[in-house]
Amino acid sequence: MAYPRTSSQVLALLPELDSLQIAETLVAFANSDGGTIVLGYDERGKELNRAESEDVESALRNAVEQCRPPVRATLEPADGSSGGPSLVIRVPRSSDLHALDDGRVLVRAGAENRPLRGDEIRNLATSKATSDFEIEAVPGATLDDFDQAVVDEYIAKREERMRRKTTGDRHQLLHDIGAMDHRHQPTVAGILLFGRNPQAFLPQSGMVFVKFPGVDPRGDGGAMGYGRREEINGPLARIVERSWQVVLEEMRVGAIVTGLERQDVLEYPEYAVREALVNAVCHRDYRTRGRRIELRKFSDRMEIISPGGLAGYITLDNIVEEHFSRNPRIVQGLFQWGYIEELGLGIDRMIEDMAAHGHPIPKFNATAHGFTVVLSNHRERRGHFGASTPVVTPEGLTVNERQARALQYIREHGRITNRDYQNICPDVTAETLRTDLVDMVEKGVLMRIGEKKGTYYILK
């Protein structure tokens, strides 16, 4: 594949053969979802100097010696076209907790390596101890339990995304992606992704859709019951597809009129719903038996309930900025399938889609045994920029005139970037405007989404 333009959750572009910087990235990737290190490139993907293989090998050895325990990493030929890097460092996710020899424990947070605090380290250590359930062999399962048509579909989608043909035999590929173990026995991830009937082995792996006519989990007139109930089973790709189809059948369609044109509008933004469904399938705790993912549709909201609490060091406070996968092989599988657009950006995009369509941002509820995403179908009416739409801020907080204009802009457009703010306040310095936005984030008025040039702000 051609290497991306910038560093990301699973890619680090490092300009120098700095063994400490390499070691920090090795530890961060190993403690997170793994990743690829490309040396000799800046953060914009521009080649600064071509690293010789002997120098890269030496720098990697020095870096590994600074990791406790040593991180398993491999130096491999790159898959890029001519003009790209010749060698890359592959770092798999590790079941161990890794630190640097100075005691720091790092994780990958977007395009950066972030040190963890004491409580976060403990949570990550606990999660590491139980996070390999997806590569455990499934008792009684054999390769005959794989649906070869589903495997073929996955391989075709993978080749399309990676822009190159798969080399080697099928068994080797299934082993490499964690779908079967060294004895050729299907793993949990393999059965969930490719099984003919995964629920025969893992009955908790399906989804239940229930529609209620009102705002409470009751039927018409307040009686016990529901309007529609669907059990959705099969391999994970089919669960994603079928659950989306059921939701689409049940979503009301409204309309907005612009000038003389009428535009149909779904009850919920399409991307936000699909992302919530995919996240539930990817990140639920499949060790939890007796509970399936629940999709509840009420008259005013939709709830997606995923068994298992937040994984690793993820909390409700850092869920937008941080990323950690309980099931990295399942995540990678659905990413290659095309159900995940870019690793680590699901929550950001879900929030953005809801805000852009005039909905309140999603609510997230977490307990020790479950995680719930709540999407509201309430949609604000939007006037023209400059109209007298009131600007609401948390009680007791005030904003200056520039900040009020920024808030007005967000209500009209769903979000604002630094460039947008400069356009509506052209006579104010960029630093002053940046300070305005930081001030509103600290006051709890705005939420910052994204990194560096991709940063934007939405109402919190």
CATH architecture of the largest domain: 2-Layer Sandwich
Helix content: 25-40%
Question: What is the strand content?
Answer: 15-25%
Unreliable residue stretches: 382-392
CATH T-level fold name of the largest domain: Heat Shock Protein 90
What is the topology, as strand order, of the major beta sheet? 10-9-13-14-16-15
Number of beta-strand segments = 18
Radius of gyration: 24 Å
Number of helical stretches of at least 4 residues: 13
Please identify the top-level CATH class of the largest domain: Alpha Beta
Largest sheet: 6 strands, mixed
Give the overall shape, derived from the CA principal axes: globular
Q: Structural class of the secondary elements?
A: alpha+beta
Give the count of structural domains.
3
Task: Estimate the mean pLDDT confidence.
Answer: 86
Could you tell me how far the N terminus lies from the C terminus, measured between alpha carbons in angstroms?
38 Å
Structure commentary:
There is one protein chain. With 460 residues, the chain is of the alpha+beta class. It folds into three domains: 11-115, Methyltransferase, Cobalt-precorrin-4 Transmethylase, Domain 2; 128-378, Heat Shock Protein 90; 401-459, Arc Repressor Mutant, subunit A (Orthogonal Bundle), CATH 1.10.10. The protein has 13 helices and 18 strands. The strands form six sheets. Strands 10-9-13-14-16-15 form a six-stranded mixed beta sheet, with helices on one face. It has a four-stranded mixed beta sheet with strand order 1-2-5-4, with helices on one face. α6 (188-194) runs parallel beside α9 (328-337) and α7 (236-250) runs antiparallel to α8. It is globular.
